[in-house]
Amino acid sequence: MLKVCIFGGGAIGGYLAAHLARAGQCELSVVARGKTLDAIRTNGLRVTTASDEFSVSIHATSDTRELGPQDYVFLTLKAHQVDNALEQIAPLIGPNTTILPPTTGIPYYFFHALPGRFNGTQLPALDRDGSQWRAVPPAQVLGCVYWIGAHASAPGVIVQDGAKAGCPIGELDGSDSERVRVLSELLCASGIAAKVNENIRSAIWVKFVNSLCFNPVALLTQATLGEMAEAGGALPLIKSMMSEADTVAAQLGLRIGPTPDKRIAMTLSAPHHKMSMLQDLEAGRALELEPLIRSIGAVRDLAGVATPTLDMVLAMANLRAVTATNAIQTQEQHA
């Protein structure tokens, strides 16, 4: 039986883990910590989707050494958390382990196996000293995009936002490998739509740009997706930001499929959803803005393309993030 580890028990990790555990077709474990670890050990995971609600028991631990090398490892962390977790991730990775790192920003492996002049390009701004490249070899990576709107209403309790959820996966070179087909079948059998995408790099870009454009606007406005749709100027601003980003993609030789209008419409299909950065703001958690800023900066400079609208919105969002962090620190000092 395949050994699968979900490294991170938050909304996305918990959603994946619960579905895989319910299907019972793999030996599953979850790496978590703190209140989330305690909750999973005591009560398992509880998930509410648009049409279902279920609870499952899952083996959870904070010590990866007891798990050993896995067949598949999902790193369902925030992008800014990966560097500090590399030592803990290491025991899970053997020579035949397939890893699915987070793709909120541009992932460190983005230019691995990319046809053309940027093939193999490493981005120091995104991967400090090449530590991720060495610890999680790109040849062992599958691309994965989480189109799963969800939030943790409490530790170990996951609520899906919107009716649809899926995570396309694919080889970076577009090949039809056994490992990608096996994982696709495993996820689909668990109730998670996971089609094999022969252009997964484009899908990663689309998701990155979605986060890059919607998250800062949500941070500044504190609006749900539905409230953004009802506002007069929010969607034209987001479309302008997306268009700038896609100009960068064209210079890098990427084939981007759906237009900004189609991508915006798809995102708005969950009108009550709050973007993850707004969820983090309201919960007093660290904001995952810096990886987005560094990501667009790195590829923009590589492509030699200006992004004035993105730059302005991100600058304002970054100021909002700074003031939020300062407020949290002040509260902690007076607690």
Describe this structure in words.
The protein is α/β, with parallel strands linked by helices and 335 residues long. It has two domains: 3-189, NAD(P)-binding Rossmann-like Domain (Rossmann fold); 200-334, N-(1-d-carboxylethyl)-l-norvaline Dehydrogenase, domain 2 (Orthogonal Bundle), CATH 1.10.1040.10. The protein has twelve helices and eleven strands. A five-stranded parallel β-sheet has the order 5-2-1-6-7. The protein has a four-stranded mixed β-sheet with strand order 4-3-10-9. A two-stranded antiparallel ribbon has the order 8-11. Helix 6 crosses helix 12. The termini are far apart. The mean pLDDT is 94. It comes from Paraburkholderia hospita. Its EC number is 1.1.1.169.
Total helical elements: 12
What does the overall shape look like? globular
Strand count: 11
Order of helices and strands: EHEHEEEEHEHEEEEHHHHHHHH
The radius of gyration computed from the alpha-carbon positions, rounded to a whole number of angstroms, is 19 Å
Structural class: alpha/beta
How far is the N terminus from the C terminus?
49 Å
Percent in helix? 40-55%
Enzyme class: oxidoreductase
Domain Ketopantoate reductase N-terminal: 4-173
Organism: Paraburkholderia hospita
EC number: 1.1.1.169
